[in-house]
């Protein structure tokens, strides 16, 4: 029982990271109808930026700010260089371009930094606290806390602020939104910046738990995408529930079934969902209008 | 319609047998095989050529699935690896015959590809991209971790070749021959029934479905073909290099295959060979870049973005595009005879019988308990104000929406629960209000796809009969002389006529026309009216939706009126149009 509780805590912690990245996926998908396959690389790049800043001797909080600012800039460049020129084409060229961007980002970092995984220390000096039978790692606590705050922030931002409503309008009907005086390209730019920062935040939070490596981006992204399908594609709540569920499944799978195949469980769950419930937990099947 | 189109029915041009027309290809291929067998290469060049040959076959697979069918596969390296391990483990560990292993490689990838395709291809393209990446990752995990079977990271050594091709030189010649054979099949594929279906699916899935193409099955076929070509290439690769290891089949390699395909041109096997050759040779020329890990892939990633942005059709697409445009305007289409419509008659006097048909979207009752009976040989109109449920009814009839309740019987067959392509096979033809043609194809090819409807009794066997039927239909709507032009060069009104020709070529039992007059100018409307008369004169039953009251009242003998999803009037045209409920629905009541 103690082990189960411990695994549940760890699973939710790692699941929260998937949920954050999945949220970034969903936001871009809703705004542009495009799945951004470089979303995971945003996390990886942010983690490396953080490592570089900390190594330069900057304080942790300043490194954090710089890394997130760097991500905002990458969001801008990504939108202008990858999405914007292709915005009138079908989804396939855009997908392929984002895959190209993902390869470009990952391997540029590899060329600059080398293949050696890096270590990033956690935010807190205390490694964790013992709560009854369960050991609560401080970094996991931080991840879960930040995720809860961000979910609340998202809700407030999209439902209660004018900017949030403009973003929603853009994602639902671009032509109508622009007729109402909303600058669609600005809204899409904001979405990309926000998603890049969100992905970056996830990367920085998870970096002390994993190693900072070139592969961390694609691993996280694939699981986050699996999370969005499990939750229901394009659904914000689905992304979060799917992410948490996936983290828990994977942690238990690694503990009870097999460690080397840990990364395979997510995909098995994904394929099972695709076959038996492709609309996910929350999703509704939508048909194209003739 | 010009006078020349009405000329005496001369048979369409009989083409020479394929084998003779394609003779130059086989001669060229034979010369290449002879060169590969006869020239003395040193080991280094030989390896590069062997790699380029086998990789090209794998990239052919992508040209089928991505280029022809518009579906993505980011796991081609995994299928390549399946083939390589099948031949590797089979010959080295199990001491099986090479040929047996090569056949096994194809069989395994066929099953894996079909299974993966079936699990995902009903869903959108994003899912496919992600699932194939996931599959690629699982395969890599298994190759590395299942040490007992795959030897793990050490890889498989001592892979054997067939007795017949022991020397590297002869093995290369064998691979070049395989390349030529597979290349021929892939090159010819777009002009076969399956290939046309793939292109139709790529261009417009909905239109493909209502023209009798099983969209899901076509995608699965394309995906399975791609996987098999990957497996075959991998098997040949393993035999050539005698050693394989997991890192040769990673996600990065899948990306490399994709880049090769995009760079050369995704639509053609020639593009595949160009792209593969370049991406194998360029790294060899710029070896010094390899000293920095990651730099190469970073450049690949950047090239993918740049190619997609600036050269979406690749190098070969760029070259051949100019050629095709030039040819389309010089090649005269064959002269065709008169179109014969022979609607099937298996049921009774009523061709289409709809009873209690409903379609609800959540709480909205878009169509609510509608009855329609369409008499054989009549023109029947379905009218109603905006939002009355006309188009929804048509979409339920053609199977794009599933009926919430009710029953649809077409010529004695219950089609209520059939998929769109099955209804088409049962004798339904339709056009769309917002035109849905296959935009990358010529007018003739569009109509050929219609003519290929399963169960079309009006075409004989073979491609010539198909072309003849399609030409007849195009000539019937007055566009026979422009058959070889691409869809984009036709006006809106003419595109509508091509859609009608596409439906007519399939010789339907019932033709559904969804607002055919929408967006037409007054001359075009008159022509449309004439066309409808000529269609009706041949006894084809038509169900038409339109807003144009002149057209409807003159063309239709029978009218059904919908409002708010319910039938408010039904009967002989003039009587219905004077019905007080109909007048108030259109003009409002006092």
Strand order, main sheet of chain A: write it out.
1-2
Proportion of helical residues of chain B: 55-70%
Stretches of chain A where pLDDT falls below 50 for ≥5 residues?
285-290
The greatest inter-chain interface is formed by: A-B, 51 and 49 residues
Largest sheet data of chain B: 6 strands, mixed
Number of helices of chain B: 24
Mean pLDDT of chain A: 86
Coarse structural class of chain A:
mainly alpha
User: What oligomeric assembly is this protein in?
Assistant: heterodimer
Contiguous uncertain segments of 5+ residues of chain B? 1-13
Kindly list the characteristics that best describe this protein.
heterodimer; A: 290 residues; mainly alpha; two-stranded antiparallel sheet; 11 helices; 72% helix; disordered C terminus; B: 590 residues; six-stranded mixed sheet; four-stranded antiparallel sheet; 24 helices; 10 strands; 11% strand; disordered N terminus
Structure write-up:
With 290 residues, chain A is mainly alpha-helical. Chain A has one domain. Chain A has 11 helices and 2 strands, in the order ααααββααααααα. Chain A has helices at residues 2-32, 39-55, 60-83, 91-113, 138-160, 162-172, 174-179, 184-206, 216-231, 236-256, 262-276; strands at 128-131, 134-137. Chain A has a two-stranded antiparallel ribbon. In chain A, helix 2 runs antiparallel to helix 3 (60-83), helix 2 crosses helix 8 (184-206) and helix 10 (236-256) packs across helix 11. Chain A is globular and about 60 Å long. Mean pLDDT of chain A is 86; it is low at 285-290. Chain B has helices spanning 18-21, 23-38, 43-68, 76-92, 98-120, 125-145, 147-150, 168-188, 193-203, 205-210, 215-241, 251-264, 269-285, 295-310, 314-330, 390-398, 420-425, 443-451, 462-476, 492-505, 522-537, 549-555, 573-578, 580-587, and strands spanning 350-361, 364-375, 379-383, 405-410, 413-414, 428-430, 510-514, 541-545, 558-563, 566-572. In chain B, helix 21 (522-537) links the parallel strand 7 (510-514) and strand 8 (541-545). Classes of the chains: A mainly alpha (290), B alpha/beta (590).
